[in-house]
Amino acid sequence: MRFLRRSLVGLFLMSLTAALLVAGGYKFYSAFQERMAREGMSAPARERQFAVNVITVEPARLVPVLSTYGEVEASRTLELRLPTGGRIIALSDRFEEGGAVKAGDVLMRIDPADAAAAVRVAQADVQESQAELSEAERALLIAADDLEAAQAQTDLRTAALERQQNLQTRGVGSASAVETAALAEASARQAVLSKRQSLANAEARVDQAKTGVLRAEIALEEAERALDDTALVAEFDGVLTGVVGALGGIVNANEQVGSLIAPDALQVAFRISTQQYTRLVDGQRSLPRLPVSVSLDVAGVDVTATGEVTRESAAVGDGQTGRLLFARLDQAAGLRPGDFVNVRLDEPELANVARIPSSAVDAAQTVLAITGDDRLEVVDAPVLRRQGDDVIVDAAAIAGRRIVAERSPLLGAGIRVRVNGAAQGEQGGAGAQTPPDGAGGMVVLSAEQREKLIAFVDGNTRMPEEARARIKEQLAAEEVPAELVTRLESRMGS
C-alpha cells in the first residue's frame, strides 16, 4: 500500500509540474506579443505589385498578309477516251500511272481490222460514185448534141415553110404544099422540146452523181477517222494519271482509260470571306492581279511556288459563303493537283499602324498602357487585321507608349505593375532617374520625391528614433539605395 500511495503522489507532482510549465510558456508568449504590438514591430501592409512584360508601340506602314488554304488544280487536263471500242492490241511503255509522255506519242491501239475494212468499202463507194458521175457527164454531152441537131432540123423546116408560103403568094404554089410544110415545121419544134427535156434530165443526173460522190467522200473520211481513232495519241506533253487497260482487254466506245495532265500548268483555288474580298477590291471595279505564294509542308520541308490571281468564280455555290478565287502558278515544282496548300497574298498597305501580340488585346479591342506612375490604363486599339499570333492595330492612341504584352485576369485599370527586366530606377512612379554607370543599386531622387519620403519617415511614430534618424540620413544623401526607396514607397501605399 505504501508503494502505491507514493507512486500516485509522484504522478500527481509530475502532472502539476507539466501544467505549470505550459502555463508559464503561454504567459511568456502573450507578454512577448503584447510588447511587439506596443513597440510597433508588426509588418506594415503593402500594396500588391504585379510583374509584367511590356512592348513599346512604334507606328509604321505595314502590308497585311492574307493567309488561307486552297487546293492545287490542273488548268490543262485531257481525258483519254477512245471513240470506238475494240480489243487492245498495243500499249505504250509509258502508259502507266505517273508516266511522262510527249505530244504525238501513241499510248494505246485497238484492233483496226473492222475500221480498215470500212475504209476499203468507202473507197469502193467513192470509185463507184465517180464512175456514175463520169457516165452522167457523157450523157449530158450527148443530150446537148442531140438538142443541137433537133434545133438545126427545126430551122430547115421553118425555112421550107417560108418558101412554100412565098410560092403561094406568087400564085405558083398550092395550099396543100404549105400545109405539109407547116406540119413538118411543127413536128420539128416538138422534137426540139423533147430534146430539151432529155438535156434537163441529163443535167439532173450529173447533179445527183456529184452528190453521190460527195456522200461517198464523206463516208470515206468518217471511215478513215474511225481508223485513226483506233490509236490513242497524246495531244501535249504531260503526265498520265488514272490509267486503266491491259493487252487483250476490251475497251468500250467512249470509255475513259486515263487522264493527261500538264504538270507545268497548275492553278490554286482558294476561298476568302466577303469582308476580305471587299478589302482586296477596295476602290476598284474588278479584282486586281495580286501576287500570291503557296506552300506545302512535306516532312518539315516547305515546297513553295509563286503566282498571281487571275480570276474569281462567277457565282457563290449552294451552302457556301465568300468568294472563290483562282491563281495561276509559275514554276510549281513539287506540287501536284489535289495538294492542300497554304495560300498567302498581300493586301493593300496600311499607314499609322502597329503589329503587336494578340495576347495584348482583349475582346473589346483595348490594351493596357503603363502610365507615368507605373499604373495601368485602358486604351482603345482597334484591331484591323490578324496575322497569325499577332494583330495589326490602329496606333493613333498608343503611339510611343508602353503596353502590356500578355494580359491576364489579374491585371486591370489602376493596378500598379513592375516591368520585367527593368531596373528599379526605370519605374516612372518612383520619380527616380536611372543611376550612372557603376552606381549599382543607387538612384538619384528628385527634390519632390525626397521631401515626400522624409515626411513619411517623420510621421511614422511606430518607427524607433534611432532607425528614423538613420533612414533620414540616407535620404538626405545625393544617391539613395534603390531598395530603401522601394521599401518606403510600398509602405506609403502609393
Low-confidence stretches: 423-440
Assembly state of the chains shown: single chain
Count the strands? 27
Amino- and carboxy-terminal Cα gap: 76 Å
Principal-axes geometry comes out as: elongated
Q: Which strands sit side by side, in order, in the main sheet?
A: 4-13-16-15-14-17
- The helix fraction, in percent, is 25-40%
Mean pLDDT: 83
Radius of gyration: 56 Å
Strand content: 25-35%
CATH architecture of the domain at 113-228: Orthogonal Bundle
Briefly, what CATH class of the domain at 113-228?
Mainly Alpha
> Strand pairing plus helix content: what structural class?
alpha+beta
Q: What is the overall number of helices? A: 7
- By CATH, the topology of the domain at 113-228 is Helix Hairpins
Give the full name of the CATH homologous superfamily of the domain at 113-228: Helix Hairpins
Largest sheet: 6 strands, antiparallel, barrel
